[in-house]
Specification:
Number of helices: 11
Strand content: under 5%
Helix content: 55-70%
Radius of gyration: 34 Å
Length: 274
Amino acid sequence: MLASLILGSPLTPLEHGLRHVLDWLHSTVGLPWAWSIVALTVIVRTLLVPLTVRQIHSMQSLQRHAPQMKEIQKKYKSDKQKQNEELMKFYKENRINPAASCLPMLAQFPVFIALYYVLRAFSKNPPSGDLSFLHFIPSIAAHTTSQWGGFVLLVVYVASQMASTLYMSATVDKMQRTIFMIMPLVFVFVIARFPAGLVLYWCTTNLWTVGQGLITRRLVPKTPAPSLTERRSSRTPPKEVAKAEEEAEAVPAPRPVPQQPPRKVRRKKKAGRR
């Protein structure tokens, strides 16, 4: 009840807007209610393309400056406060916004809550039309685990969430990436109590993120590998390597000594015995 008073009032206009869009997709376009949710997801992600572009640019910038950031973390490893100050200073100097990678998800959160209220109204007053999806989910307004097809939808949710995490967490360390991979397995027990249409919305947006990651990886040029002359031993200082190379170039190569043919020794014939 308290959550309804806190979240319901500010999100009421958004809830009415989503209901009108779903009604238009169902009545005018002629889509079933479940496919209307899929179309609504595509519309929302299309409107969030500017934030997605900022997210991609932020991830690319983090990848380019990852070596410098690791050096700062290694330098101030014992002083976390100083490390955070230097990292924030580094972000400001290089115009990096680490929070930009979370903007599309944060922008979708109000839509997620508003759609929950729309589907809850569907369960109380079902609209005209079929609420099933692909003939294995009887109703998108019912709880996901109340129908056998909902378990298939939960499997798709976990798989798509893990796949989207792989593409959107390329700049985090292994520990954080492991946590992000485990989170869908933990939240699946919470998602299971949501309406099936809400899980369908989240699966669609995860698949959109996976497709976006595939396109981004094709468009972003790969970092060229260092040439053989740039590769140096980790134990040899760069100055000594350069000095050794200069000395090797300054010393002229020895000239080859021509080889003479071997001399033929003539043997004297011994006088025959009488």
